[in-house]
Amino acid sequence: MPIRQLSETMINQIAAGEVVERPASVVKELVENALDAGAARIEVATAGGGLNLIRVVDDGSGMPEDELSLAISRHCTSKLGDDILDIRSLGFRGEALPSIGSVSKLAIRSRTRSADSGAEITVEGGRVSGVRPAPSNRGTTVEVRDLFYATPARLKFMKTERAEAMAIADTVKRIAIAFPAVRFTLSGTDRSTLELSATSDEVEGRLARIAQVMGTDFPDNSIVIDAARESVRLEGHVSIPSYTRGNALQQYAYVNGRPVRDKLIASAIRGAYADVLPRDRHAVTVLFLTLDPAVVDVNVHPAKADVRFRDPGLVRGLIVGAIRQALANAGIRPATTGTHAMMGAFRPGPTSYGHPGPANGHRAYNPDFRAATSASYEPQRSPFRPLDAGFAEAAQASFDAGPLHSADARAGQAEMVEALLRTELGAARAQVHENYIVAQTSDSLVIVDQHAAHERLVYEALKNALHSRPIPSQMLLLPEIVDMPEEDAERLALHSETLARFGLGVERFGPGAVAVRETPAMLGETDVTQLVRDLADEIADSDTADTLKERLHAIAATMACHGSVRSGRRLRPEEMNALLRQMEATPGSGTCNHGRPTYIELKLADIEKLFGRR
Q: Does domain 472-521+527-562 have CATH number 3.30.1490.20?
């Protein structure tokens, strides 16, 4: 077949394959256009999961009549100057509208602030109609009907209507977090409406928008992030270690206001939480990176979901360091969700009793019962009389003879020390089931898992010992020669000083090979070849050599697990209080090495609610 020039419609349909992946992609492009136009109110309406109808209405600056035909032409945009590296808007490629129009029935109505009337242009499967006058409010209305009708094969790859509608909702929420001062409305065929009222661009307004999207639990279980390094600034909120999710869908990242799904950022978040979360749990994060547009390339993918940083090591180091520092400064905080679960477990529920009647613990109503008159009432014979002697002061004296036996151990009979009650974890009062320390603060009850708590303390001490001095290494009798691609060998050589601090001696050994002369003594016998190749892969992927550090930390975690206070050991009151004080002074002690919580807290107000006092 001879080489020929493709038609304009075919070119647009090829571009649509990259830009218009599904209905959510269309919503993303249209909402970004509305934001670039300065809209303060954006309304999105869909039908059939976005396949039948997508309508986006905004109150932005609008387009003049003579520019409508340019708007649906390829590579026509008002957002890009002469410098491709100076991109300060969400859109810039000029491909979205012509690509959408090539695979659907597209209609655009717009009016500027100064115009007396609006104008409209339509595109059906790539065929453009002329611009004509049309009634319109200030701003722009874009309607997309019968998406992919011009390319019916694409419809076979769409998911269910509900799945597509959920993807659209996620897209709107993801964008809305970055623009709290804009009001968003999303409605669909299921008659459900998502309304996100405008707040402000300040920190409080941004947190209020985050609560609208992610729920009110997140602000109560989050930590503020505010850090900078060189020309890069990081802001946002991250969850405390005890507040997690089963997937990473609630990890939101933004680069200069643009929502992105970047592997580098995701890897940095995992690295920051590596010591405090189990492998199957994920932190909840909202991070905003602000940097010079010239040092980040957003023109990597047509959908603009990926970015490329000029200095990825700087960005990763900033994220990891800022999150770890924030977690350390935040001290120990239990997740409020744990308190809610504990409240639910304590609330009265259906229970089987040995007598007939309702399962709420109250006596069933007896219709034969009649209140006795005062003349016939005999207190000693009444079945409703107070209990016989046993709670009088004389009878109570026997309880003062010795300690109560309702717990395995008591934290002493001395008077409460006010100083301890004012601390975060309070004063130890008892040890139950030889594993749980019950402590009291001035306004709460705290239950501590002694093994999990001490395991974290020992682990942190071992880590500090590892980083305070060079890692002891063991010399190999014969150097291990590892063959690998030349680029991997060069990367290892560049990181040889870092690896040496962790006890791994690596040097070049001719082209395409490295020689390993020393390994960390903590690793014992290990597969040197596999270790070095894993390190080379990690350096190529994220420009770090954390694999070796993670292995050393894993050994320290195992040592901490076996060297900590075991379940079943009775502790003296002074030992329990000492453990609580160490927890308060140790960053990350709210969870153990495996990510499980080390303690839960129940506020006095919640306890009073359980007993109906509030």
A: no
